[in-house]
């Protein structure tokens, strides 16, 4: 064994890191770490969760800048490295948590992450399909990434990494979510790349993979370098000692000794989406494992036992039959995808651990914080969770520590059943032993434990009974001496059972053309444009009803009036759409409209010279751009929330409007108003301009880097940052664009009211948000359309117009607006939840 870096050959190292140190909030993540990676080698990087492995590689790929230390790539010193520059140099990082944007399509994820050069020399779609094929990912380019399984998202990450033909490829726990077929393919790709001279840094917790792939190995512990050695010259026992700082006697605790007592957990002929007729039982102290090739019903079974999806059959725990509803409230479920399903990433470690056990922290009347801190702290301590404090956000923890927080939450909730899907995915060897012992103790206490894992060796060492699933059926049940890794793999790959997937059965019974049409329809319904179809249908239905009551509804005057109103609201709502796409909101658009009209009323007056009019428009535009820059800067640099920042500006603008114009004064130039409200037939030219702007913005949103970056920032900020999106710049410019479009809306409002009225404009804040939500744009950011916003604006104006033609009281304007936005929000929430229920079980 060699505890110092092995002597490097004379060839220039691909990557040299010297004296790297990095702290977060005063907590040292790395301390004076040095690493050298040679051309054509696989360099394994080992360490416990929180040891600094991912942080070190984030420094190497430009995601994080070190406090001290130097970085050299192929002999060239790199001072200001960022992810996009790293990609251009051929540095690729496959993150443990895929850096993908869930609200964007597969193709858009490739486009936003990869350099333009990757897509030169051919059709973009063809090149993208080739990249997916190389990584073994079989999905449609138009599939939304949100609907992909964890394994598919990881394969997408691999496809992005391979696309840049990397000189340095960093793989962070690459096999954790993959099935054996994908693992074999990945290893073959790694060997091919290494043979071509690519350097690979391989972060893993699995020593068997180190033996199979790696040439050298470096071990970190507590953010410090412990050793670098040639793999063949160091034993597993020595590596484990370096990793955990102590000797590990055994990874797996002793198994339950057989007894004649009655089973305390029985599932009998359980059937649900993706699995059929599953039966198994266990006695107190026994752990049940679920094996099989990934995607054959294991995860679906666990979700059904957790009450998350309906099931048929009997589930009996300690002699009591449990319904799906009872299981939902009493079972503890640890999902494989801890980021999407398992944790609330913006909440603290304490809050995530305590959320399922709040009843245990009650005092006489209120929650007892002392009791909560004591119990949560004790449980997290028993799992050796490494966090700056209990109040640190859970997103700041390493993947393994996040997994242990989920385990802590399950233990604190006092469940009747524990269900763990890939419980040690991304967890270091020391923590694995602790989790195994805890699961064994839970089972011994009388709480049944069921584990699904793609690691057959884990199931062999931990479980007392293992059912092997293939295509949703149990093809073998293993106990005692039969419970071996070889038997599990053989049963899984040699099964000839047929799938029970409803989707696959339907496709098998239909011809290929029907299946293709069904897939296209499904993608459309899951896409951003589906709400626009509903809006058109509602508008046509409402219009027909009003016309039936009053035939003047479609008269030229009414059409012109409505489209002029749409023009004002539409421009403002377009700006609001940009703010919402970034994941924010702009409450200041209403007062900004009024303020700009007041500013214009000092310059754009009757008989005013041309220079004054030009100056007035310039002042309005300049004021709008300043407000947008202020909003964006408060949010990104002063760290205000979007609501707080824009509400502050809202108040300031409204106050300034009344200071400048205490009452409505300053009549707008009638010639200018006449020009702006020019019509072609019954259609105002301004509305035509609005439509052209919408088309341009929609094209930019879908087909240009600006649109991809905008949506990426709102979809998943951290992932967007990892792929090289400049978040601060994108968001700030987004708010500037919001204010610029508001300026166009202010011009329309100015011509309609004809006077500088400080009270006008405020209502446009709520109206613009309503129009955007009606158009299908998510309040959470990342998805939406300008076309939908235009139709939402038109529907909103149509509803307000309908109250006049139907002779309804003004109160109905507010009622109908409220009903519309509530209906849109409910329909959107239902659609999202159905997609999650349909796609989340896939492995």
UniProtKB/TrEMBL annotation:
Keywords: ATP-binding, Cell membrane, Membrane, Nucleotide-binding, Repeat, Transmembrane, Transmembrane helix, Transport
GO molecular function, one term: ATP binding
Pfam family, one: ABC_tran
Keyword Metal-binding: no
All residue ranges annotated as the ABC transporter domain in the record: 15-247, 260-496
Membrane topology of this protein: Multi-pass membrane protein
Top-rank taxon: Bacteria
Residue ranges crossing the lipid bilayer per the database entry: 529-547, 559-580, 611-630, 642-660, 680-701, 731-755, 761-780, 787-806, 812-831
Compartments, record wording: Cell membrane
Alphabetized SUPFAM superfamilies for the sequence: P-loop containing nucleoside triphosphate hydrolases
Keyword Transmembrane (UniProt): yes
SMART domains xref list: AAA (SM00382)
Location, primary (coarse class): membrane
Entry-linked PANTHER family: CARBOHYDRATE TRANSPORT ATP-BINDING PROTEIN MG119-RELATED (PTHR43790), GALACTOFURANOSE TRANSPORTER ATP-BINDING PROTEIN YTFR (PTHR43790:SF9)
Protein name per UniProt: ATP-binding cassette domain-containing protein
């Amino acid at each position: 064994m060699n505890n110092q870096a092995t002597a490097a050959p004379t060839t220039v190292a691909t990557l040299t890191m010297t004296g790297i140190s990095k702290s977060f909030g005063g907590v040292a993540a790395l301390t004076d770490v040095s690493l050298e990676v040679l051309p054509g080698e696989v360099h394994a990087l080992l360490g416990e969760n929180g040891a600094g492995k991912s942080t070190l590689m984030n420094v190497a790929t430009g995601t994080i800048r070190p406090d001290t230390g130097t970085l050299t790539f192929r002999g060239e010193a790199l001072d200001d490295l960022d992810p996009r520059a790293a990609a251009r140099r051929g540095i690729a990082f496959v993150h443990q948590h895929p850096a993908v944007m869930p609200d964007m399509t597969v193709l858009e994820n490739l486009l936003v992450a990869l350099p333009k050069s990757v897509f030169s020399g051919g059709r973009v779609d063809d090149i993208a399909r080739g990249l997916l094929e190389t990584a073994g990912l079989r999905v449609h380019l138009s599939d939304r990434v949100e609907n992909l399984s964890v394994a598919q998202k990881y394969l997408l990450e691999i496809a992005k990494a391979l696309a840049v033909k990397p000189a340095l490829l960093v793989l962070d726990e690459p096999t954790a979510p993959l099935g054996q077929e994908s693992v074999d393919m990945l290893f073959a790709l790694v060997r091919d790349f290494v043979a071509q001279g690519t350097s690979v840094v391989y972060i893993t917790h699995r020593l068997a993979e180190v033996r199979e792939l790696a040439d050298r190995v470096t071990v970190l512990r507590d953010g410090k370098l412990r050793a670098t050695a040639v793999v063949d010259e160091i034993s597993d026992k020595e590596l484990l000692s370096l990793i955990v700082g102590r000797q590990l006697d055994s990874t797996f605790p002793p198994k339950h000794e057989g007894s004649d007592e009655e089973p305390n957990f029985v599932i009998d002929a359980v059937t649900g989406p993706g699995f059929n007729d599953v039966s198994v039982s266990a006695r107190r102290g026994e752990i049940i494992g679920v094996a099989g090739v990934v995607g054959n019903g294991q995860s679906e079974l666990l979700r059904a036992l957790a009450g998350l999806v309906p099931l048929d059959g009997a589930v009996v725990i300690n002699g009591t039959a449990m319904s799906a509803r009872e299981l939902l409230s009493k079972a503890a479920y640890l999902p494989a995808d801890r980021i999407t399903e398992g944790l609330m990433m913006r909440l603290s470690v304490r809050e995530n651990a305590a959320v399922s056990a709040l009843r245990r922290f009650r005092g006489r009347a209120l929650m007892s914080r002392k009791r909560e801190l004591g119990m949560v702290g004790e449980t997290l301590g028993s799992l050796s969770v490494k966090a700056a404090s209990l109040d640190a956000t859970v997103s700041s923890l390493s993947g393994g520590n996040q997994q242990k927080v989920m385990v802590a939450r399950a233990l604190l909730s006092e469940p009747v059943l524990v269900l763990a899907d890939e419980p040690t995915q991304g967890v270091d060897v020391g923590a694995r032993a602790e989790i195994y012992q805890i699961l064994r103790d839970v089972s011994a206490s009388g709480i049944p434990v069921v584990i699904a894992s793609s690691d057959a060796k884990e199931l062999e060492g931990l479980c007392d009974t293992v059912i092997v699933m293939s295509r949703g059926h149990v093809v073998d049940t293993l106990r005692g001496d039969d419970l071996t890794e070889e038997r599990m793999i053989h049963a899984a790959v040699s099964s000839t059972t047929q799938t029970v997937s409803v989707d696959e059965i339907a496709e098998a019974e239909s011809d290929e053309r029907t299946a293709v049409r069904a897939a296209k329809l499904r993608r459309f319904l899951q896409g951003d444009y589906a709400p626009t179809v509903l809006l058109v249908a509602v508008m046509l239905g409402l219009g027909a009803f009003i016309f039936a009551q009053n035939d003047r509804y479609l008269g030229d005057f009414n059409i012109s009036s409505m489209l002029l109103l749409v023009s004002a609201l539409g421009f403002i709502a377009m700006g609001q759409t940009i703010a919402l796409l970034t994941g924010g909101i702009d409450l200041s658009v209403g007062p900004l409209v009024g303020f700009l009209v007041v500013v214009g009323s000092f310059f754009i007056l009757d008989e005013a010279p041309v220079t004054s009019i030009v100056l007035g428009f310039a002042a309005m535009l300049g004021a709008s751009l300043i407000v947008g820059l202020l909003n964006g800067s408060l949010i990104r640099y002063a760290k205000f929330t979007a609501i707080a920042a824009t509400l502050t500006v809202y108040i300031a603008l409204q106050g300034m409007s009344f200071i400048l114009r205490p009452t409505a004064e300053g009549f707008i130039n009638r010639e200018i108003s006449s020009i702006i409200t020019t019509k072609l037939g019954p259609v105002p030219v301004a509305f035509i301009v609005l439509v052209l702007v919408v088309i341009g913005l929609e094209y930019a949103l879908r087909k240009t880097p600006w649109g991809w970056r905008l949506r990426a920032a709102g979809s998943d900020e951290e992932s967007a940052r990892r792929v090289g999106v400049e978040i601060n710049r994108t968001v700030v410019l987004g708010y500037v664009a919001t204010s610029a479009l508001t300026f166009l809306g202010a011009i329309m409002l100015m011509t309609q009211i004809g006077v500088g009225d400080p009270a006008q404009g405020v209502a446009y804040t709520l109206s613009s948000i309503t129009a955007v939500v009606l158009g299908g744009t998510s309040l959470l950011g990342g998805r939406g359309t300008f076309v939908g916003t235009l139709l939402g604006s038109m529907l909103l104006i149509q509803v307000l117009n309908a109250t006049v033609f139907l002779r309804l009281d003004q109160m109905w304007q507010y009622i109908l607006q409220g009903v519309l936005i509530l209906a849109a929000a409910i329909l959107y929430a239902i659609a999202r939840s159905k997609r999650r229920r349909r796609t989340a079980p896939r492995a």
